[in-house]
């Protein structure tokens, strides 16, 4: 039971952060290796607002999302948009993204050092829940994550911009022909994708230690979730994130905890071998 | 007279330093030549090259410690690295280019966890030392690094020459055509998947050999020797020197390690803590990778027409 609760908590974080990775992957046709480092960046901005400036965590949450999105917009304008104009290949974009990942992570190390840190919030006792312990922080993570996913669902299915985003990730050329301003929609895809990633990063900081490599170690589970869910399919990605989170935690019953990370690798490799288009392709 | 002896003394002090730079450059040149075969000539995105470096190093030194003859240990390390290249290629090389990148980077991290945690096999975080080095009983200790340098340069030249020959053979031409547009060689009846697997295996085997050479030089290997950043050292070397240029790769390795030794001198002058200096180096590497790919993707010695322009 305890493992299932832990799995749901980490699963909802993986799901939340992976949605942006998946959307960008499909829309811009490249896998953004810097995505995890945006997640870590958000956690550090929240840490800065919460600890150094003494604001409460709700303010820190908002500041972190704004700062991460702003950074993402700057990178889009300085790097991704000019590269699209040059018709850069997918492989070029991937190599640039891994360079960006190195830069972002090491800026965090440069400024804050490599040690683990945590938010300045009161430690509260967990509740007893069917023989397992669930902490208020864990409840907060699950509730916030699901609320944000619900908002995303509303945005994608009910609003014009959401429909344009889905159209663009379905077929770029068709979307362009039907009069969609692709650059603007791509920018909004970044804003929403990185906004969710930043939210996930702040929440992740609630249940784990904050350190510069936290986003890096989330990258593989996120990739696994994206591939499981079928690239560009947000609902599939959410399902994939849950599956990865649960299987990571449940694996600790039989494997040493150090190998949690390997689980997503193994799941991903098996999916690529048997059904590379993703398992949850039908979740639409 | 005093000036002369002074400069000779200075030379004596600097010589071991130069030997060290050349040694480490030659090891990384071999390591990067393996990646250049995969990325430069075949267009494969391998982000976990360091894994094969580690497999080669660990296999060699562990077999040696268990009493296996040195030459056999090295061959086993090279073969095992190649075999793992084969294993990783199977699920990924039929699919889009980025799947290989994801799976290899994942593999290199999982491997590092195994090296850290399976202490019965790898001695965990303490690493492995006390293994035999080639001809260590014959060569006097003070000349040993010079001997290694001559040996490594010879190996580097041999690998360089064979790769150049391979790339001008029909096999090499198929690899280049895969890089440019897979559908052309497959229309000609070539088994593209199998050629890619061969390229990945050979590149990984070369990385395995470089791993063994690194172990002999360091006299010590540990999981910390094989962090993901080593992969990106190889990437920087290739892109600096020019994608698909073996000569450029060798020059790139020299430039990178000269730069690194330079920053070590500078670090004594600037008031930065050691973790900051390390982070600063990585920021430079990352920025260099981004800027080169954005503005000069063909590198210094690369030819523009030799660039992988197709997916």
Characterization of the model:
The complex is a heterodimer of chains A (284) and B (311). Helices cover 75% and strands 2% of the residues of chain A. By secondary structure, chain A is mainly alpha-helical. In chain A, strands 1-2 form a two-stranded antiparallel ribbon. The longest helix of chain A is centred in the first third of the chain and has 29 residues, at 57-85. In chain B, helix 1 (2-41) crosses helix 10, helix 2 (49-65) runs antiparallel to helix 3 (70-92) and helix 7 packs across helix 9 (192-218). Classes of the chains: A mainly alpha (284), B mainly alpha (311). The interface between A and B is large, with 41 and 46 residues.
Overview features:
heterodimer, A: 284 residues, two-stranded antiparallel sheet, B: 311 residues, mainly alpha, 2 strands, globular
List the helices and strands and how they pair.
The complex is a heterodimer of chains A (284) and B (311).
Chain A: H1 2-28, H2 35-52, H3 57-85, H4 90-112, E1 127-129, E2 132-134, H5 136-158, H6 160-170, H7 172-177, H8 182-207, H9 214-229, H10 234-251, H11 260-274
Antiparallel strand pairs in A: 1-2
Helix pairs in contact in A: 1-5, 1-6, 1-8, 1-9, 1-10, 2-3, 2-4, 2-8, 2-9, 3-8, 5-6, 5-8, 6-8, 9-10, 9-11, 10-11
Chain B: H1 2-41, H2 49-65, H3 70-92, H4 97-117, H5 119-122, E1 128-129, H6 144-167, H7 170-180, H8 183-187, H9 192-218, E2 220-221, H10 229-241, H11 246-267, H12 274-295
Antiparallel strand pairs in B: 1-2
Helix pairs in contact in B: 1-6, 1-9, 1-10, 1-11, 2-3, 2-4, 2-9, 3-4, 3-9, 7-9, 10-11, 10-12
The total count of helices of chain A amounts to: 11
Strand content of chain B: under 5%
Helix content of chain A: over 70%
Distance between the termini of chain B: 64 Å
List the secondary-structure elements of chain B in sequence, H or E.
HHHHHEHHHHEHHH
Mean pLDDT across all amino acids of chain B: 86
């Amino acid at each position: 039971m305890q493992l299932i609760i832990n799995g749901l908590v980490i699963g909802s974080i993986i799901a939340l952060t992976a949605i942006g990775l998946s959307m960008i992957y499909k829309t811009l046709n490249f896998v953004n290796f810097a995505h995890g480092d945006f997640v870590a960046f958000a956690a550090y901005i929240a840490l800065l607002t919460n600890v150094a400036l003494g604001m409460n965590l709700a303010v820190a949450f908002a500041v972190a999302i704004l700062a991460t999105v702003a950074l993402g917009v700057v990178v889009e304008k300085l790097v991704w948009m000019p590269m699209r104009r040059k018709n850069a290949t997918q492989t070029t974009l991937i190599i640039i993204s891994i360079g960006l990942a190195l830069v972002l992570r090491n800026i965090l190390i440069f400024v804050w050092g490599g040690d683990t840190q945590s938010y300045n919030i009161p430690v509260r006792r967990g509740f007893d829940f069917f023989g397992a312990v669930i902490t208020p922080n864990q409840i907060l993570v699950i509730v916030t994550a699901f609320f944000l996913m619900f908002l995303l669902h509303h945005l994608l299915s009910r609003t014009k911009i959401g429909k344009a985003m889905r159209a663009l990730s379905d077929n770029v050329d068709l979307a362009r022909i039907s009069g969609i301003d692709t650059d603007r929609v791509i920018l909004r895809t970044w804003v929403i994708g990185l906004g969710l990633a930043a939210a996930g990063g702040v929440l992740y900081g609630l249940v784990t230690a904050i350190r510069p490599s936290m986003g890096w170690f989330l990258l593989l589970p996120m990739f696994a979730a994206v591939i499981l869910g079928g690239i560009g399919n947000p609902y599939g990605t959410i399902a994939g994130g849950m599956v990865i989170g649960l299987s990571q935690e449940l694996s600790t019953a039989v494997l040493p905890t150090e190998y949690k990370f390997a689980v997503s690798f193994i799941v991903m490799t098996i999916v690529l071998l048997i059904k590379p288009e993703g398992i949850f392709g039908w979740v639409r | 007279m005093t000036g002369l002896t002074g400069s000779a003394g200075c030379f004596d002090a600097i010589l071991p330093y130069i030997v060290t730079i050349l040694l480490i450059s030659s090891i990384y040149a071999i390591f990067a030549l393996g990646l250049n075969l995969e990325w430069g000539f075949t267009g494969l995105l391998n982000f976990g090259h360091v894994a094969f470096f580690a497999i080669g190093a660990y296999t060699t030194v562990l077999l040696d410690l268990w009493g296996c003859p040195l030459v056999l240990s090295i061959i086993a390390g090279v073969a095992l690295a190649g075999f793992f290249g084969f294993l990783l290629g199977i699920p990924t090389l039929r699919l889009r280019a980025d799947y290989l990148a994801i799976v290899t980077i994942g593999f290199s991290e999982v491997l590092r966890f195994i090296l850290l945690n399976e202490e019965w096999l790898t001695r965990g975080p303490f690493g492995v030392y006390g293994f035999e080095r080639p001809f260590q009983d014959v060569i006097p200790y003070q000349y040993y690094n010079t001997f290694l340098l001559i040996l490594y340069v010879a190996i580097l030249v041999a690998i360089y020459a064979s790769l150049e020959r391979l790339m001008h053979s029909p096999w090499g031409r198929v690899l280049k055509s895969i890089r440019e547009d897979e559908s052309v060689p497959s229309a000609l009846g070539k088994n593209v998947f199998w050629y890619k697997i061969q390229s990945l295996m050979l590149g990984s085997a070369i990385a395995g050999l470089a791993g063994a050479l690194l172990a002999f030089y360091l006299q010590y290997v540990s999981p910390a020797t094989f962090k993901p950043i080593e992969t990106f050292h190889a990437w920087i070397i290739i892109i600096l020197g020019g994608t698909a240029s073996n000569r450029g790769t060798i020059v790139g390795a020299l430039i990178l390690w000269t730069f690194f030794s330079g920053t070590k001198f500078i670090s004594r002058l600037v008031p930065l803590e050691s973790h900051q200096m390390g982070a600063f180096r990585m920021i430079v590497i990352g920025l260099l990778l981004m800027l080169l790919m954005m503005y000069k993707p063909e590198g210094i010695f690369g030819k523009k027409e030799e660039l992988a322009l197709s997916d």
